[in-house]
Amino acid sequence: MVKKFAEPILVTKPLVASRDEIFSLFNDVIDSGWLTNMGKQHNLLEKEVADYLNIDNLSVFNNGTLALIVALKALNLPEGSEVITTPFTFAATTHAISWNGLKPIFADINKDTMTLSTDAIEKAITPNTSAILPVHVYGFPCEVEIIEKIAKKNNLKVIYDGAHSFSTKINNKSICEWGDITMLSFHSTKLFNSIEGGGLVYKDENIGRKIYELRNFGIKKFISEEDIKEGVKNKDIIKDIGINGKLNEFQSAWGRVVLKQVKKEQEKRQKVSDTYKKLLNNIKEITIPEMPKNTSNSMQYFPILVENNRDDLYDKLMKHNIYSRKYFYPLCSDFECYKNLPSAQAKNLLVSNEIANKVLCLPFYGELSKNECEAVKKISEIIKVSIL
Length: 388
Ligand SMILES: *Cc1c(COP(=O)(O)O)cnc(C)c1O
Fold this sequence. Notes:
By secondary structure, the chain is an alpha/beta fold. 38% of the residues lie in helices and 12% in strands.
């Protein structure tokens, strides 16, 4: 018998800012008297994250969900039109579509990468389809080149949910380079956090302006010739239905400090991942999904697929004080609010259902690499005895 952990081992542990650095920045914010509304810390965070990811355009938000809602809004999709998406994701992905008055259409996923199947996307396209919303789930990249071709051919917009793919790269290029817009989440459970927060990466300047304005109640910042012709001078004009998506100065400062720790955290997580792989690879009931070649992992989650009786393993781990997570089970297509959609039927989503019943995310954070991954070895041992 392997003894249970004295303290609970959770699935993740957020990066926290070092006290010296964060208190010094908090003092700056207090001295400045500027607490929110695109202040100094906010603007620096936007620049520093963009530099870190090597991308040109980023807007930060108070959370990823709101960012995704704004992304869909910024693309002016026809009211009530259809958006093709994956059921194997967090609730926020589907909800963002519905909050825009658009119709989510679920399509099945690939077995190996767990991302949207491009065949399933093509089959789901109708004359009412306006966009595709795929998810780089666990940081596994979607088939971005094929999706781009499908989108071009059918005149569709592509919005990626990149909540798990902060710093994922394909051939050394940020995954955020693909699609019209990519959403990032800076929630505490994510690799990089600003406590709560998120971002939108975009290419088109006009979409960027729209995002900026929608984030701030729709108040126009970029006055066009047309606006001037309409006699607009020295007053707020609002044309679009905006919202409040602004990230405040304290959280922006937090994000700036945490950003400096991300690289180190990823290196530690790499060790944790290597150790899990070494110890679990030869258990035939367990499959460890592999990242495609030429891709660098964002090190956000460590999912395994359990052949028989995943729930039993989950319970046994819990008894040892190890809190793994059934991400993503149940599927979004099984939620009360979506289960009656025609595309939500299990026969349309065979692979998604299979994966949702097998997947388990193991505890995964840098601190687990302490003492030559002692805790990881113990967790792996408990998994081994639980399964055999
Ligand atoms: C975390 C997450 C979100 C939502 O991000 P928040 O910043 O928590 O609002 C969206 N999609 C996926 C896949 C996520 O994991």
